[in-house]
Write a structure and sequence with these properties.
single chain; alpha/beta; Rossmann fold; 2 domains; six-stranded mixed β-sheet; three-stranded antiparallel β-sheet; 15 strands; Cas1_AcylTrans_dom
């Protein structure tokens, strides 16, 4: 692929997604808000010079700065616009023909006495065709005139952004009698002349007049909706104005979802150090591998020619050493991180905007559900929320969330609300799983804590370094990490109440409930006291972990959105384990969880509750209002699902191995999607194979799943090395990790200082 300048693609090629959304070739276009447009164009002077079509573009452009502007005034005269708050000046100059008058105006900007505009957008031709009745002489004169103007525009291009807008096609059947001579054949001839003459004297120069030809492609699709056959419908010219804004502003504002015209970000000091580390790991592993191969050849068994038996070597092949396993893991991780960087930081692969349709979300959902049901197996145990069942639950939820992200379904509110329940269900499992472990095992040792923290955070820490992103950017990992520490602190602090202790005295149950009530009170207080929450997480070095864009608001929002569900998970685990201990539930194979009558009643209530929540979520009209209710009501559908899944004995005794396989790598799938399946930090879609959307998704998905699985294996291998069971060795490792993070904080501070 020829890679190259994405600005050129933005100005010259693209296609419509679903007939409404314009998708530039190979890159993503940002939708600028008024505030962003003003920040970009502050203290700038922009000039539109040309005919009525350029006037249309002028109005669409200034509406990006001030939507209240009305198209009124002298249509065949100059129109000024000024935004005093941002010192932005935009002028339309009425020059409907490329002639000496236009040349004189452009020439005045090249002279030192007059201030040059920062952006010049020019174009004209249809008036020349109309006035001269489409004669060949008019075309010849147009070529002469544009030849005289071209050097002036090229001179201006050295200090300003100069765009020449090619003429859009017309819808000939709708043209009035006075415009019948304006044919698409004539327009093509004028466009061809403009393209050939412009930049002819500066072929090898970087300063060129940018030819705005993408408008032609847009017009070809939309000119049939024109009111008069000549002027574009409003939606099309708004798209052209947004393209102009992206061409100029993306390199200034650097929006995440605006990859067009953005240069590749320079490598930071931390990224360079990471590159050196992974390179040394690869070299080290190759050296050790070569040494082992040579030793193997020297000690290779040789055949006894007389006896016909194989002689065994005196020295046996040694087992894989810790150092070799460490280097092997970092070698693989280094190659994988190179792929991450190439996909989402280097301008090597293409990126595209998401576009939601109901079919793009629901058809894949049906497909994976059929696959999941097809791979049904018997569980090893038939307890409520057994290991196979929770892996299955995580797996199908993760697949639905992945489809939700790649299809852009967040724009459809009912789907968004149901996905919020799936995220809440993950956190519910966090509360349920960790509470159950501490309650039953009573293991509050440092080893357990370090193992969990390492497995949760290893990949994210590596990505923060390699991809130059803050920890809070991968919001789900900070969320589950903090909730794990809250669960640990709640149960570990004095008095430690575990199942073994309650066996001797039932009153300890009330002590645990008191702890849970205190936890709920703290959650309630922090959720309604944004100031207190922000003070806690604004202390250095916590602020380095939880700040995003200079504040912790995003972290507060994410935490608040599912603030009660972990508590619900802990409470459910406590009640379930109490019922199990007192043999009030039946968990035999094929047996219903309760008596037939109670099971049927609970099953009916669960189904009604599940459907009621879905109806409520589907009737949501306002995301903000629904998000306010979500923390309190999401547990309804979660508990309903658990009961539906576990009350019938047969349903509890089977699981989908297909979903369970994905469930085992669900965390890696969730994190890896940011950069190697989606693109531009989840805002777009990675395009490895342009022109073939379905094939591209298949290939990128295959690589993405394989990488996630491999990272899961690497994390498990490194966890055994970095977090040993021996306490004295573990303490040394923790000191090394503390030193590593201290160095990371120092280098991060140096980077921030150099950026400012």
């Amino acid at each position: 692929f020829k890679g190259g300048d994405t600005c050129e693609y933005l100005l010259s090629s693209g296609r419509f997604l679903g007939g409404k959304v314009w998708q530039p070739h190979s890159c993503m276009m940002h939708k600028y808000k008024n505030s962003e447009a003003k920040n970009c164009l502050i203290d700038k002077h922009i000039v539109f010079i040309g005919d009525s079509r350029i006037r249309q573009l002028f109005y669409s452009f200034i509406k990006l700065i001030n939507p209240q502007v009305k198209e009124e005034g002298n249509k065949h005269g100059n129109i000024p616009f000024e935004d005093k708050s941002a010192s932005i000046k935009v002028d339309f100059l009425w020059y409907p023909e490329v002639n000496s008058s236009m040349r004189q105006r452009i020439k005045s900007w090249t002279e030192g006495s007059v201030a040059k505009p920062h952006i010049i957008v020019a174009g004209a031709a249809t008036w020349s065709i109309k006035i001269h009745n489409g004669s060949n002489e008019a075309l010849a004169q147009y070529k002469i005139n544009i030849t005289s103007i071209a050097p002036l525009l090229e001179k201006l291009a050295k200090s300003s952004d100069v765009y020449w807008v090619l003429q859009d096609p017309v819808y000939e059947d709708m043209l009035s009698e006075s415009r019948k001579m304006i044919t698409n054949e004539k327009i093509d001839a004028y466009n061809e002349a403009a393209v050939r003459i412009l930049n002819s004297s500066s072929r090898n120069s970087k300063a060129k007049v940018k030819v705005f030809s993408v408008s032609k492609l847009i017009a070809q699709e939309t000119i049939v909706k024109s009111a008069d056959g000549l002027h574009l419908p409003e939606s099309s010219r708004d798209t052209n104005a947004m393209i102009l804004m992206n061409v100029y502003c993306n390199k200034i504002m650097k929006p995440i979802d605006g990859s067009c015209c953005q240069p590749q970000p320079p490598l930071t000091l931390i990224q360079k150090l990471a590159f050196c580390f992974f390179t040394l790991s690869i070299i080290g592993y190759l050296i050790i591998n070569l040494i082992h191969r040579n030793n193997y050849r020297k000690n290779k068994p040789c055949t006894d020619l007389e006896g016909g038996e194989e002689k065994k070597p005196a020295i046996s092949t040694p087992n894989v050493s810790t150092l070799e396993m460490l280097l092997h893991s970092f070698c693989k991780l280094g190659l994988i991180m190179t792929y991450f960087y190439l996909c989402d930081r280097a301008n090597l692969f293409m990126k595209e905007n998401k576009f939601y349709t109901h079919s793009s979300f629901f058809i894949p959902i049906v497909y994976i559900l059929v696959l999941g049901v097809f791979y049904t197996e018997n569980t090893k145990e038939t307890k409520v929320l057994n290991r196979e069942q929770t892996d299955e639950w995580k797996g199908w939820m993760q697949l639905v969330i992945l489809i939700y992200h790649i299809s852009g379904a967040s724009t459809f509110l009912p789907v968004y609300m149901h996905i919020r329940v799936l995220v809440a269900a993950y956190l519910f499992q966090t509360g349920y799983g960790h509470f159950s472990y501490f309650w039953i095992k009573g293991d509050f040792g440092v080893y357990r804590v370090c193992q969990v923290l390492f497995r949760l955070n290893f990949l994210v820490v590596v990505l923060c370094i390699v991809m130059d992103r803050p920890y809070q950017f991968y919001y789900f990992v900070p969320l589950v990490t903090v909730w794990f520490m809250i669960i640990y602190a709640t149960l570990a602090m004095w008095p430690q109440i575990v199942q073994k202790k309650t066996n001797g005295n039932c009153l300890w149950h009330f002590g645990l409930l008191l702890k849970l009530i205190c936890l709920l009170t703290c959650i309630y207080f922090l959720s309604y006291s944004q100031g207190a929450f922000e003070k806690i997480f604004s202390f250095w070095p916590l602020s380095k972990c939880f700040e995003l864009n200079g504040n912790v608001y995003e972290w507060w929002f994410r935490w608040k959105l599912d603030r009660y569900v972990v508590f619900h998970g802990m409470l459910f685990a406590f009640i379930y384990l109490a019922l199990q201990k007192h043999q009030m539930i039946s968990e035999g194979k094929g047996d219903p969880l309760f008596s037939n009558r109670v099971s049927n009643v609970l099953l009916f209530i669960s189904v009604v509750s599940f459907l009621t929540y879905s109806v409520w979520a589907s009737s949501c009209k306002n995301k903000t209002e629904c998000n306010e209710l979500h923390p309190s009501v999401s547990v309804v559908q979660i508990l309903a699902f658990i009961l539906i899944r576990n009350i019938p004995g047969y349903v509890r005794s089977v699981y989908s191995s297909f979903f369970a396989w994905f469930g085992k790598i669900s965390l890696e799938l969730f994190i890896c999607q940011y950069h190697i399946w989606l693109a531009a930090d989840t805002k777009g879609i990675l395009v490895l194979i342009p022109g073939y959307p379905m094939f591209n998704v298949l290939v990128s998905t295959f690589i993405f799943v394989c990488v996630a699985h491999e990272i899961s294996q690497i994390t498990n291998d490194l966890a055994q090395i970095v977090v040993p069971k021996d306490n004295s060795t573990l303490l040394k490792r923790l000191l090394c990790i503390a030193g590593f993070f201290s160095g990371l904080l120092i280098f991060s501070a140096m980077q921030d200082q150099s950026r400012h």
